[in-house]
Design a protein that fits this description.
A hairpin with a 2-residue loop joins strand 3 and strand 4. The protein has 581 residues and is mostly beta strands. It is built from 4 helices and 40 strands. The longest helix is centred in the first third of the chain and has 15 residues. Bound molecules: calcium ion (CA).
Length: 581
């Protein structure tokens, strides 16, 4: 019924010529990375390369980049703005903190509509009230909310077309990632690993919100698919019950899929990173705790896990493996690159999941001395695992200094891959933490950690570093250090540039080959979001969201104290080259 109405409305608008609706099709989404006129998906293409073939803004012209317009998210709601805008049919759709979304006229910067989700008291986002972006399909713009709902709005009017509750926010579920659309299916994850939720990937019909299948990412849980009447049909257990999880802990095992996924049209697989096993205290759950802190590759049609690679088995440091798996070509084969929170960069065969290479992209890693390329497993430094509190006074285990800190060598800020240089550009952070374990038991809606911690800087002069990394050699080719921890994503262009933002408020453009800074602009608040670029008519534009916040001010310990002078905000900036003359 909803479908039919939507089709009729769209057809009518087309005939009258008042609104030229351009429905987003799956073919358009598959072509997103190549189409210079739009940005239809998080990652500027479903494989997440964040690479644009546009060249008008380049190493020679970028010095003339000036603001075209800026738009304020307004209100009293600021906090972290981690959103990547999507661009389509003359409109920008950009989400903001507290589950808000705006539609903006691309030419003028005028607001077309906004939707502010009514959030209940008692939502439990672990790491600020952020949202990372929306997905486009048909005439819909779809995003997830902090109370774990999916909202689909009409792109032209901002009116709700469908709305689905994904899970119970009172049990710690929330949604912050941009949904992924692949093979005409809407794919989403859940946040909440700090509250003992059960991570999973869900597939829906993007036109209606109807559930197609559910695939849990904690071994032991049943997957389901749904027939056309919504009837639940068992679709196989994820892994083997109790094989890598002891006792009952798998029932509240975490492994949340909080960063969403990527999709590669050549392998036909969707890749989702999974977060920490719950609780953090690893002595309560001996075993690998599959599929926590992993990448899982899923068949989009059925939800079957085709392969899984675990970055941190029996994680003890909150090394969520949620980071994006970005596919790329190397030596005539399709690989995926992943800069993991645990400090290692992984190069993995995108079809089979076989590990090709793994190397550090930060200076200090204490928990493992390396990754064994034969077995694919980390070589643990046993003495650097926080100890079992039941072996000491029963209240608190030994305090261990660990690097990276749990906020990770890289966190939510997406990296970019340049097809021009063959390099990955990683917003990395150098920090460590004191960490210790404590007893804990599961309570619905309570933090499920069993650990205490304090994050500390490692070096006096910088925490953040944008690093250009060669996936073939495993070498850091160049780096651009930053005083504050980096928390915004990167973008590479065929203009020979890499763009990224800093908490100090700058959007910067560097020479992608050398790392030389060529341009910067002060946006007025910290940048913790990834930039995008597109072409409209004969003009190339760059946009980025500004608004300091995210996990660092909330969880950053001694680092948070160092950056507490930074001011909050909430706006999106759009840039173009200054007119000649
Ligand atoms: Ca976590």
């Amino acid at each position: 019924m909803k479908n039919t109405m939507l089709a009729v409305l769209t057809a009518t608008a087309g005939v009258l010529g008042t609104v030229q609706a351009v429905e987003v099709t799956n073919a358009m989404i598959d072509n997103d990375a190549k189409d210079q006129k739009s940005v239809l998906s998080f990652g500027m293409g479903t494989n997440g390369q964040r690479y644009s073939t546009l060249t008008q803004i380049n190493t020679g012209t970028v010095k003339n980049l000036v603001p075209a317009w800026s738009f304020s998210f307004g209100g009293e709601k600021q906090r972290g703005q981690e959103s990547q805008p999507v661009i389509h049919n003359g409109k920008m759709f950009v989400t903001a903190s507290y589950s808000r979304i705006f539609a903006i006229d691309l030419k003028t910067g005028n607001k077309l509509w906004k939707y502010e989700h009514r959030l209940p008291d008692g939502i439990m986002p672990c790491c600020d009230v952020v949202n990372r972006g929306a997905a486009l399909f048909g005439n819909l713009v779809i995003f997830g909310t902090l109370d774990a709902q999916l909202i689909a709005l009409d792109q032209d009017t901002g009116k709700i077309v469908w709305k689905e509750k994904v899970d119970d926010y009172a049990a710690g579920y929330s949604m912050t990632a941009a949904p992924l659309i692949a093979e005409g299916v809407l794919l989403t994850g859940v946040s909440g690993g700090e509250f003992g939720v059960v991570g999973r990937v869900e597939a829906r019909n993007p036109a209606t919100g109807e559930l197609l299948w559910v695939r849990p990412t904690v071994e032991g849980h049943m997957g389901y698919r749904y027939d056309k009447d919504g009837k639940e049909i068992e679709n196989g257990v994820s892994g083997t019950v109790n094989k890598s999880w002891p006792g009952e802990l798998w029932k509240t095992g975490g492994a949340s899929t909080w960063m969403g996924g990527t999709y590669d049209a050549t392998t036909k697989l969707a890749y989702f990173g999974t977060g920490n096993p719950a609780p953090w205290n690893s002595h309560l759950r001996p075993g690998d705790n599959l599929y926590s802190s992993s990448t899982v590759a899923l068949d989009v049609k059925t939800g079957q896990i085709k392969w899984a690679y675990q970055n941190t088995p029996n994680d003890s440091w909150d090394f969520d493996g949620a980071n994006e798996f970005v596919t790329f070509d190397m030596n005539g084969k399709r690989y995926g690159g992943k800069a993991d929170r645990n400090g290692f960069f992984y190069v993995i065969d995108a079809s089979s999941g076989k590990l090709q290479n793994a190397f550090p992209f930060v200076r200090k890693i204490t928990w493992a001395s390396g990754i064994d390329l034969k077995t694919g497993r980390p070589i643990y430094v046993a003495s650097n695992r926080p100890s079992d509190p039941t072996k000491g006074d029963g209240k608190k285990g030994s305090i261990v200094f660990a690097a990276p800190a749990f906020l990770g060598a890289k966190n939510q800020m997406p990296m970019a891959y340049s097809q021009q240089t063959g390099l990955f550009y990683i917003p990395a952070n150098e920090w460590g933490m004191d960490i210790w374990n404590e007893p804990i038991s599961y309570k619905k809606g309570g933090a499920f950690l069993g650990a205490g911690f304090t994050i500390k800087p490692l070096f006096d002069d910088y925490i953040g570093a944008l690093r250009a990394v060669d996936p073939k050699s495993g070498k850091i080719v160049w780096e651009a250090k930053n005083t504050a921890p980096l928390w915004g994503g990167a973008m590479a262009t065929a203009g020979g540039l890499v763009f990224y933002g800093t908490p100090e408020g700058f959007l910067k453009a560097l020479d992608a080959k050398t790392g030389k800074e060529l341009w910067k602009f002060q946006t007025g608040s910290g940048v913790v979001a990834p930039p995008v670029t597109w072409q409209d008519g004969d003009t190339q534009y760059v946009a980025v969201v500004s608004g300091w916040g995210g996990a660092v001010p909330l969880w950053g310990g001694e680092v948070a104290k160092k950056v507490n002078f930074l001011e909050q905000g909430g706006s999106v900036w759009v840039f173009k080259l200054a007119a000649k003359g």
